[in-house]
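Quality-control log, excerpt.
Job 1 of 2 completed; input and output follow.
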Amino acid sequence: MLALDDRKAAILRAIVQDYVRGGEPVGSRRLVQEHSFGVSPATVRGEMAALEESGFITHPHTSAGRVPTDKGYRYFVDTLTETAQLEPAQAAALEGLLLDSSDLEDLLRRTSSVLSRLTSFAALVVAPRLDRSRLRHIELVQLGPTSILVVLIVDTGRVDKRRLSLDAPVAEHDVQRARHAVNDAAGGLRLAQAPDVISGVAAGAPTEVRDLLDAVSDAVRLGLATPTDGDLLFLGGTANIAGEGYFDRIEQVKSVYETLEEQVMVLQMLRDTLQHGDPGVRIGTELPLVELAACAVVAARYEAQGEAVGSVGVLGPMRMDYPRTLAAVQAVASSLQKALAELTGGA
C-alpha cells in the first residue's frame, strides 16, 4: 500500500468517515468547514486531486464531490489505530442472550440474529468444524433389522446424524456391542482419526458386528469428506441487504442475495478473509467474485479448547462503519466462545 503523508491521510480519513456517515460525495468546501486541517481550501483541493490520481478516491459524476474507492477503504482499515467498543449495556445483553441458549443450533441461530441486529448487515456464522473436533460419543440407534441411525456427538456440541442401511440384519444386542466397542476405541480422538481407528476395531471384531462397524467407520468418514468439510452456515438479517440505501443499483442487491444462496461460496469467502488476519477484512475487488465488487466482508474466528473451530462475520456494502463493524464482530465472536464453553462444559 502506497504510504501517504499526514495531511493526505487525514483528508482521506475524513472523506471515508463523512461518506460512510452521510452517503453523499464529499467536497472540499465541506471538508474545510467541518474539519480542522489548518490549510486553505485550495490546498485541500490539491491534496484531493493527488488522492484521486493515486486511486484512493474517485468522483461518481463530473460536478460531484469525491467518494472512497476500495483502495481508499483499505488504507483506512489498515491504518486504524483502534476499533470502536460496544456500549457496556450492549455487551452485557449480548453475552446474556447467548449464554441462555438451549443447544448448539440455538446458540448459532441466536448469534446470527444478534450480529445482524448490531450491524444492520447480513450475518454469517459458521458452526464448529467436525474435522477440528474430538469425538465425545457415538450413539447407535436401531431403526429396523438392517437400519441403524448413527449419532456423532463432538466436544464442541455439534451433533451429526447418519442413517445406515446394512446388507444383513443385525441383532439389537450386537448393535450395543458395536456401540461400546466404538466409544471405547475412538472416544476422545480427533474426528479425523476416528474412521481408521474404528476400521481397525472392525478388522478384529466378530463377524456378527464387523459389517456394522465398517459401516460406522464409513459414516464418520463421509461426514468429513463433504465439499465444505462438514461446515454448516447460519445466516441472519439477509433482508438488511435491501435496506439503508447502501447499494446504488438493484442489480447489486440481487447479486448479494444470489451469493448468499451458495453456501460453499460463502464459506470459502470467509476462509479467504481470515487468511489475511483475525479479524479479517476484505473489500471490493479483494473479494473473489466480481458480483461482490461493491461489498465488504468482516470476519473473526472463535475457539474451543484453545483452537479455532468456527467463524462469524458480516457481508455488507463497502460503505460501512469499519471501526463499529469490527467491534461488533469481535464482541460477538468472544461472547459466542464463552457461551460455547458454557454449553459444552468447558469444551
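Job 2 of 2 completed; input and output follow.
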Amino acid sequence: MSARTTKPHEIVERALALSRADGCVVIADEQSTANLRWAGNALTTNGVTRGRTLTVVATVDGKEGTASGVVSRSAVTADELEPLVRAAEAAARGAGPAEDAQPLVTGVPESPDFTDAPAETSSVVFADFAPALGESFARARAGGRELYGFANHELVSTYLGTSTGLRLRHDQPNGTLELNAKSPDRTRSAWAGRSTRDFKDVDPAALDAELAVRLGWAERRVPLPAGRYETLLPPTAVADLLIYQQWSASGRDAVEGRTVFSKPGGGTRVGEKLTELPLTMRSDPNEPGLESAPFVVAHSSGGDQSVFDNGLPVAATDWIRAGELAHLVTTRHGAGLTGLPVAPAAGNLVLDGGSDLSLEEMVANTTRGLLLTCLWYIREVDPATLLLTGLTRDGVYLVENGEVTGEVNNFRFNESPVGLLGRATEAGRTEKTLPREWGDYFTRAAMPALRVPDFNMSSVSQGV
C-alpha cells in the first residue's frame, strides 16, 4: 500500500480497523492542484501537484471523562499507518479529559460515492482560460500596461469515517484568479480577483478592461489627508471584513463576555438589531456556485469547532436575518454550555437583501466620496468591539458628482465590521467575490457593495 495507489476509502477503513481506542475518526484529504503564474505580460510557470493528508482522531474514555488525541500526516504508506493510529491513541491517553467531549456523531446516511475514486484537477481546467489570458497579454502590451498574477485551481476529496459507522465524502473545487495591472513605470497599480469553481465563468478580457479603466483613473493624483470619508466598499472589501466578523462569532465566547457579540451584563446580542438595512448574512452548503461541505470536517478542536462533531450535518443558517443577529457559531459542547442552538461553522458566506444597484450605479449616485479597490493586512485591535486595522491597496479613487476624477493616496483604516453594518446607508447588488486578504483561507463568498458615510481613514499610507 503506497500513498498514491491505495484508494482513500480503503485507507480510512484500514485505519478504523487498526484502532484500539474507544472511539475513532479518520479523515483522508485527497488534494490536487493546477496553477499558472505570469509577469510582465508573459507566462512564467505552471504546475500540477497531488497529495494526501490523513488525520486520525482517537478518543479514550476514563473515570474523569473522555480524552482525545489528534495526529495528521501526509503521504502515509502501509508501514506508517499503524504507527499513525497508535500515535493518536497515545496522544489521547496522555491528555487530560477533553473539555469539548461529546458522543461521536451517529445516524448520518452514508455518502453514495464514498468508495469512488477521488476527483482530481489538472491543467485541462485552464483549457479555455489560458488562450484568453494570452490574448489579454497582447491587448495589455498594446495599451501600455503590464499584467501580473496567478490562477490556482484546487480539488479536495475528503473521506470521513468513524467508529460509529459514518462514511461520508465531499469533493470541494476551489479556484482563484488574481490579476494586477501596472503602468510601465510601476507608479500605478490596479487589482482584480475572482473566485471560481472551474474557470469557465472567468473572462480575462473583461478583467483587463476593468483594470485599464482604473489605471486611467490613476493618471490624475489627488492627495488627501486622513479623516472620515463617505466610502464605497466593493464586494471584495466587504467580504474580507465580514469573514473576519464571522470568524469572531463564537457563541461560547460571546456568552463568556469576550466578544463584540457579548451583551453587557451577561448573555449575547442574539435578537439585537445590528443594522437598519434589511440585510441577511447567511451560510448554506447548497448555495449555487458556492457549494461547500454539508457536514462538519474538524481536523482539530478549538474555538468554534470540535473533533467530536465530525460528520455532524451543516444546515443552512441565517447569522443575521433582516438586520437582526439571529445565530452565533456553536458546537454541540458550546450549545450545552450556553443554551444556544447548535450552529456549526460553514464553508461559505453570503450577504444579501440590498438593492439591485451595481457598484457603477452607486458611484453615479455619489456626490463626493472614495471608491476602494480592496483591503490588505487586516489585524484585530480590540476583540470587545471587533475593531480592525488594515490598509487600502491598489487604488483608492476620488468620486465627484457621480464620476471618478482621480486616484488618491492609500490609507490605514480603523473600523469594526459590526460598526460599519450599523452605519451603512446603502447596500448594492450581491455578487460572487474573492476576498483579497483571506483568499488563501476562505473564498466562497457573495457580497454587495456598501456605502458608509464616515469610514475612518486613520492615517495616510505610502503603499501603492
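Post-run check on job 2. The longest helix spans residues 78-93.
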